[in-house]
Design goal:
The complex is a heterodimer of chains A (about 190) and B (about 350). Chain A is an all-alpha fold and about 190 residues long. Chain A contains nine helices and no strands. Chain A is globular. Chain A starts with 13 loop residues before the first helix and ends in a 6-residue tail after the last helix. Chain B has seven helices and 14 strands. About 20% of the residues of chain B have low confidence. Classes of the chains: A mainly alpha (about 190), B alpha+beta (about 350). Chains A and B meet through helix 1, helix 2, helix 4, helix 5 and helix 6 of A and helix 1, helix 2, strand 4, helix 6 and helix 7 of B.
Chain lengths: ~190, ~350
């Protein structure tokens, strides 16, 4: 691998990290977003940021530390997506790294691998536990996949309020995802 | 939760995709370059591709016109091709007025549906350029907020020129200019100004109405359907269905075009997903289906010239009392900052 080798100073070997955690990170993001396209964008940016930031990582003797660091990047990106409804892709831009467009087959296979059908059914049950305003905002954003601006328009609220409602709802729903994903990510 | 994941042999495309990105990652050289430059580079690549597409489309249109000129009597009219041509192409300025509602259910009828007429001027090629005017609406029909949370039910005017987005709130005489924005595609259109998913039908596809219709026609999704009369005009219905998510999510499209000019008259989309089938109560009609109807009250095309391009720029009728100019980064930083109660 050109330019990605683990340095003698103990920086992570991105190729090794990708081989071991590329798919788990992708499935983690797919189940957190319930959207294969968004998950792929966040996933690609996760590895781009890992590649850029590997020199800042302080290696430890613990083998799981690198994986925690990698999932930490993914979580930060996910949190940014929840907050702003936008997917950060700056590291991909700086590296001039682009992921290939995903074919319908790739998206379908990713949906199946992440068991998104089951997840959506679980979300349906969990939605009923949310307050009506939050439930509708999450439903419009996650189920109908409307932009935050469109969610705000539908509900007659400001875009900022729509973001807060969706974020609050997703945070509650994330408890379900956490239970499902416990064995998928390092502690 | 236990989940049964497909075996590797059952998902060859996904495995190939993972392998491809791994190779791209391996070849990526970390280097110091600022993001705006990278965005500009991507933008330039998109521009080149777009020019090629439009050049090719122009040649194709010229070829069709030449053939039709030679054998007009024996060439049947293809409504799909005619509708595609009527949408305009490279070098045009299109102006349209649309009124939308999201079908039966909720509060989409009545005053909201009647007043939701939006005017759009849009350059069909080159850098993204458009101007949209949405009239004021009653509060129950939806309001828009400024970046710092000031809600205004009054009219909104928004314009985009490349990476600069301008918003004018005439009721509160406020002008906001956001520069250095990232405009990833022509599909990044302000669906808010149209009051909902409108021409999208689902998350898939562009929010730019004309871009969306072009794509559907180019992809061959729509085929000729029945003829009839709609909004006082003779129309031809172009209909089609697409499926996503392994066939579980379904979009139904019905584009009614004028039988003579082939310009759009009404576009209706219906969408159902695996989720809404199982949870029909989340949809307005409680049957799992979501509907968006858009009527084109006017549709015009003109050559894009320096004179016609003036329609793409906001010109406030009164002097703004408040004016904000900031970069997108500054805008996001300020919009996220805690606000005083």
């Amino acid at each position: 691998m050109r330019g990605n080798q683990s340095h003698a100073s103990g920086t992570p070997d991105i190729a090794k990290l990708y081989a071991e955690h590329g798919e788990p990170v992708l499935l983690f993001l797919a189940r957190r977003t319930a959207d294969p396209q968004i998950a792929l964008d966040l996933w690609a940016e996760t590895f781009a940021q890992a590649l850029e930031g590997r020199s800042r990582f302080r290696a430890t003797a613990e083998s799981a530390a690198e994986a925690r660091w990698l999932f930490g990047i993914a979580r930060n990106l996910l949190a940014g997506y929840y907050r702003r409804g936008e997917i950060e892709q700056r590291a991909l831009g700086r590296l001039k790294l682009e992921r290939a467009p995903a074919t319908p087959e790739v998206l379908t296979q990713l949906e199946e691998a992440a068991a998104l059908g089951d997840l959506r059914r679980e979300l349906g049950a969990a939605l009923s536990e949310l307050s009506p305003g939050v439930r509708e905002a999450v439903s419009l954003r996650v189920v109908h996949e409307l932009d935050y601006s469109a969610v705000a328009e539908r509900l007659g609220i400001s875009e900022g309020t729509a973001r807060v409602r969706v974020s609050r709802g997703l945070s509650n729903l994330a408890r379900i995802l956490d239970r499902a994903d416990l064995e998928e990510q390092p502690a | 939760m236990t989940e049964r994941r497909p075996l590797a042999s059952e998902r060859p495309e996904l495995d190939a995709y993972l392998s491809d990105f791994g190779q791209r990652l391996a070849n990526a050289e970390p280097q110091v370059s600022d993001a705006p430059v990278a965005r500009v580079a991507r933008g330039a690549r998109r521009e080149r591709r777009r020019r090629l597409v439009f050049a090719t489309a122009g040649l194709a249109v010229a070829a069709v016109v030449a053939v039709l000129a030679i054998v007009p009597a024996i060439t049947p009219v293809d409504p799909v091709s005619e509708a595609r041509a009527a949408l305009g192409d490279s070098g045009d300025l299109v102006h349209y007025v649309i009124r939308s509602n999201d079908g039966p259910g909720r509060a989409n009828g009545g005053p909201c549906a009647q007043r939701r007429a939006t005017k759009v001027w849009q350059a069909t090629s080159g850098r993204p350029r458009w101007r949209v005017i949405r009239p004021g609406m009653p509060k129950q029909c939806g309001t828009m907020g400024t970046w710092d949370g000031t809600l205004t039910p009054g009219p909104i005017e928004m314009a985009r020129d490349g990476d600069t987005q301008t918003t004018w709130y005439p009721q509160i005489r406020r002008l906001e200019v956001i520069t250095e924005t990232d405009y990833p595609s022509r599909g990044d259109f302000p669906s808010l100004l149209f009051g909902g998913p409108q021409l999208r039908g689902s998350a898939a596809g562009s929010a730019d109405p004309i871009d969306r219709l072009r794509a559907l026609l180019d992809e061959g999704t729509l085929r000729e359907g029945r003829r009839g009369r709609l909004n006082g005009r003779d129309v031809v219905h172009l209909v089609g269905t697409t499926r996503e998510g392994g066939g579980r999510n379904e979009n139904q499209f019905d584009l009614a075009v004028d039988a003579q000019s082939f310009e759009p008259v009404r576009f209706t989309t219906r969408y159902i997903s695996d989720f809404t089938r199982l949870n029909p109560d989340v949809t307005p009609t409680r049957d799992g289906w979501s509907t968006a109807i858009t009527d084109f009250l006017r549709y015009e095309r003109q050559p894009l010239t320096s004179a016609t391009a003036r329609a793409l720029t906001i010109r406030p009728a009164t002097r703004p009392t408040t004016e904000f100019r900031m970069t997108k980064a500054e805008f996001e930083r300020r919009a996220r900052a805690p606000r005083r109660p």
